[in-house]
Write a structure and sequence with these properties.
mainly alpha, MYOD Basic-Helix-Loop-Helix Domain, subunit B, 0% strand, RNA polymerase II-specific DNA-binding transcription factor binding, coiled coil, Max-like/E-box_TFs, HLH_DNA-bd_sf
Length: 188
């Protein structure tokens, strides 16, 4: 009886150890399968991990390469997202500016419709454009003569010195007066 119970206990212990070992092996295999599936999923999702056939058979990418290509792709996506967010921000500002301009033009049109005779003695749009063009031409000529675009640093320095020299109120006033005299002589 004792021998039979000893054998039964040893058999029970071995089967318990076997079951634990089997359970551990199965858990480890599940873990490895989950990791493999994760790498396969990454390789399928990330465009830069697509298999490339360099020879007749295709070689599987190493896990390190899959991870690096995934990191690179995520960084690329972050940069793209940031660019798109900046674009959206710029477009929102543009839309806001256009809405403001629309409101202003609507007010001008409404004021003109309410008083159609007002402004008959005003300066024509063509004359306004000629004054604007003369001022801008004068500023551009001095800008073009003063600015160097050899390097960004030189450009920055030239722009600041040009602004300080050519955009003083007295200088701008002289430019406007000169343009008006020139246009006056053309009219008469």
């Amino acid at each position: 009886d004792d021998e039979d119970s000893d054998y039964h206990q040893e058999s029970y212990k071995e089967s318990y150890k076997d079951r634990r070992r089997r359970a551990h092996t199965q858990a480890e295999q599940k873990r490895r399968d989950a990791i493999k599936k994760g790498y396969d999923d990454l390789q399928a999702i990330v465009p830069t991990c697509e298999q490339q056939d360099f020879c007749i058979g295709s070689q599987k990418l190493s896990k390190a390469i899959v991870l690096q290509k995934t990191i690179d792709y995520i960084q690329f996506l972050h940069k793209e997202k940031k660019k798109q967010e900046e674009e959206v921000s710029t477009l929102r500002k543009d839309v806001m500016a256009l809405k403001i301009m629309k409101v202003n033009y609507e007010q001008i049109v409404k004021a003109h419709q309410d008083n159609p005779n007002e402004g008959k003695d005003r300066v024509s749009d063509e004359m306004k454009f000629n004054v604007f063009q003369g001022i801008m031409d004068s500023l551009f000529q001095s800008f073009n003569a003063s600015i160097s675009v050899t390097s960004f640093q030189e450009l920055s320095a030239c722009v600041f010195s040009w602004i300080e020299e050519h955009c003083k109120p007295q200088t701008l006033r002289d430019i406007v007066v000169g343009v008006l005299h020139q246009l006056k002589s053309q009219l008469y």
